[in-house]
């Protein structure tokens, strides 16, 4: 019997032989995984466990071996190259950060940016919000989605190869939902989503129909803006727009498609103006030392230190009240407004987006006015001429540090202020 089994194993392809070896234990220990593999195209093609996982069992058990997208790319080269060129191919790079100065850091994370034996990074990655989280929250709340960069299983599943899974828009919902990017909710409740649910792909598009046309793995093909709503470079945006026009024109008249996309552009521009107004109010308060607390009076930002941060690296913790309002305005309401417009969903563009954006702006205006009056009252009670001059010098210094005053303008304003103070102080 043993001789028969040995001969049988020797007749199997190498991958199948190792798979049979693995199954001897894993049929009992992880039967679901083995069952999924047996149903897969990999099993039918003779691709066994070691072909993807390698043969170092101890490292596999220790969690040091992961089947990365580059492993899949050895066989699926075209799909891997398309994926790597897309926004999905930057998933971890847009949601990570160097953890070397964090307490309780996981040293295994260093390998993401550094090759063994050198401190020089092979890629530059920074995300302030990731750096502010514990290692556990970073893994659960950040990397579970952002790992799509290097894990095909994020969409396909780890051991199944049934393409019906990744052709269903539900697979996108795991990450593309929630207050900062509710594309799933927008599509699901739009006319596209309703028709797709009732009649299927032949009548209305799914996420894949618009963003992965003809099976491409470049999910960025027709997207002309960054996730933060900025237009892409002039040499890239027009081609992206034409790609989306081509996709939409498979169902709609080209003139209609162009008008709809132009309306989306207009909503985005109008909304961006409101965000910029709110940012300018906060920057003005900061330049005059009126934020409570000021950046220098709170824990340092993990990337910018004791600076005011209102761009994509802004935090939702260790901040002032008015900045927390701005975070919700920019990260949530602004995103819902313009993304709702491009997903043809009136409720998300208007009530969940535009209305919330404008209500938050009113709150920011009111809070700025309150801080202004509070500071005026404080000055009337306690501020001497020296205190006022010092405050104004501090304001000029901040303006200079933030680039709103160049060197010459800063020196001129500082000199004029000091001369004015000396004249008033003279007997």
UniProtKB/TrEMBL annotation:
Instruction: List, alphabetically, the SUPFAM superfamilies matched.
Output: Multiheme cytochromes
Origin species: Geothermobacter ehrlichii
Coiled-coil regions listed in the entry: none
Position of the signal peptide:
1-19
Spell out the protein name for this chain: Multi-heme cytochrome with CxxCH motif
Q: Name one GO molecular function term.
A: oxidoreductase activity
Q: Name one Pfam family in it.
A: Multi-haem_cyto
UniProt entry keywords in alphabetical sequence: Signal
What the entry lists under Gene3D superfamilies is as follows:
Hydroxylamine Oxidoreductase, Chain A, domain 1, Hydroxylamine Oxidoreductase, Chain A, domain 2
């Amino acid at each position: 019997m043993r001789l028969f089994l040995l001969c049988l194993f020797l007749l199997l392809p190498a991958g199948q032989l190792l798979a049979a070896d693995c199954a001897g234990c894993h049929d009992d220990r992880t039967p679901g995984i083995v069952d999924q593999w047996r149903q897969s195209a990999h099993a039918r093609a003779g691709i066994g466990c070691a072909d993807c996982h390698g043969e170092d069992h101890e490292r596999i058990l220790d969690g040091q071996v992961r089947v990365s997208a580059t492993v899949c790319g050895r066989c699926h080269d075209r799909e891997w190259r398309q994926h790597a060129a897309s926004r999905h191919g930057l998933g971890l790079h847009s949601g990570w950060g160097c953890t070397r100065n964090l307490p309780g850091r996981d040293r295994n994370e260093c390998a993401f940016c550094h090759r063994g034996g050198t401190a020089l990074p092979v890629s530059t990655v920074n995300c302030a919000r990731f750096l502010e989280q514990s290692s556990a929250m970073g893994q659960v709340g950040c990397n579970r989605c952002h790992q799509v960069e290097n894990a095909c299983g994020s969409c396909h599943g780890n051991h199944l190869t049934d393409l019906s899974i990744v052709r269903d828009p539900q697979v996108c919902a795991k990450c593309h939902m929630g207050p900062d990017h509710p594309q799933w909710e927008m599509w699901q409740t739009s006319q596209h989503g309703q028709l797709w649910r009732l009649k299927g792909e032949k009548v209305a598009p799914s996420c894949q129909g618009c963003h992965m046309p003809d099976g491409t793995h470049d999910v960025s093909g027709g997207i002309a803006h960054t996730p933060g709503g900025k237009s892409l470079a002039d040499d890239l945006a027009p081609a992206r727009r034409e790609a989306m026009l081509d996709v939409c024109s498979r169902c709609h008249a080209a003139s209609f498609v162009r008008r709809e996309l132009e309306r989306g552009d207009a909503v985005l521009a109008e909304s961006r103006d409101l965000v910029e107004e709110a940012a300018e109010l906060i920057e003005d308060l900061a330049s005059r030392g009126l934020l409570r607390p000021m950046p220098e009076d709170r824990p340092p930002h993990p990337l910018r230190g004791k600076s005011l941060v209102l761009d994509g690296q802004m935090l939702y913790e260790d901040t002032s009240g008015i900045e927390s309002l701005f975070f919700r305005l920019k990260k949530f309401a602004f995103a819902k407004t313009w993304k709702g417009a491009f997903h043809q969903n009136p409720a998300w563009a208007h009530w969940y987006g535009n209305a919330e954006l404008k209500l938050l702006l009113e709150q920011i205006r009111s809070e700025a006015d309150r801080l202004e009056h509070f500071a005026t009252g404080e000055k009337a009670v306690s501020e001497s001429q020296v205190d006022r001059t010092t405050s104004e010098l501090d304001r000029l210094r901040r303006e200079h540090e933030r680039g709103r005053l160049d060197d010459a303008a800063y020196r001129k304003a500082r000199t004029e202020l000091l001369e004015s103070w000396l004249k008033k102080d003279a007997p």
